[in-house]
Structure formats: C-alpha cells, structure tokens
Amino acid sequence: MSEQSIPDDAHPDDEARREHPDALPEYAERVLEVAELIPPGRVMTYGDVAEWLEEGGPRQVGRVMALYGGAVPWWRVVRADGALLPGHELRALGHYRAEGTPLKEASRAAEGHLPRLDMRRARWDGGERAEGHT
Question: What mean pLDDT is predicted for residues 92-117?
Fold first, then answer.
C-alpha cells in the first residue's frame, strides 16, 4: 500500500511523532471510534466505515484495523462478502457466536467448512445508536 493511499491526516508529521510517539493518527482514531460504536451481534464492512467517515476507502480502513484494531471489537469490521478474517477465523467465530451475530452455515463443500456472516441480517447502518456521532 502506498503512502498516498492513506488520508493525509493518517500520517502525523515528524514533529508530532517526536512529541507524542504513541499517538494514533487522527484518521485511525476515527476508524476505531466507529468500530466501538457497532453494537454486539452486528457488523459494518470496511467500506461502510469509510462511507460513515466520509473519508478514505475500504483499503484504508482495513489498514487501520490491521495496525491498530486489536484494542477494539475488530471482528465487527468485516469484508463485504461476509467471509471471516483470514488467519483469525476461529477467534472471530467465537465472538460472533457469543454475540449472536447472524451466520450462514457453510456447506460441506465449502473450504474449511467455516460459516460466513449473514450480511443481510448482520450489517449495521449506524442507525439506532449513531445519533450522538459527530
């Protein structure tokens, strides 16, 4: 991924890095705030989060989640096709089952027999708890 593909504010300038070496880029903070708003049992796609923020795109959101998402409910920000996050399928599946996230059970022919998210039922549009969002 090129440096130019991430919104400008995702790269703090050198002075800001020296003053606050552990500070998250502003764009990353905003992505993580949206992830924390998603109710248990619901999901948003990477593209949904970018659209909510009116900045960046699915790849930029995915990059933020890969770098900084461990401290938030990362399993609630997902691929648009409902496939479980590669390398984290079983951990994510445990969260989905615990939260009652709608799943589509895999057919016996499906690779690994892992379910997918039922995006039609699980997808959250930011509605009911989003009124306070700025």
Answer: 86
- Nearby residues of 78 by Cβ (< 8 Å), 6 or more positions away: 43, 44, 45, 46, 85, 117
How many whole angstroms separate alpha carbon 76 and alpha carbon 65? 11
pTM over the 0.85 mark: no
Residue pair 9/27 in contact (Cβ under 8 Å)? The answer is: yes
What does the block give as tokens for 75?
A: 């399993």
Q: Which of the two residues, 63 and 134, has the higher pLDDT score?
A: 63
45 within 8 A of 123, measured Cβ to Cβ: yes
CA distances from 55 to 13, 36, 59, 79, 82 (A): 19, 18, 11, 18, 23
DSSP-based helix, strand, coil % in the chain, nearest 5 = 50, 5, 45
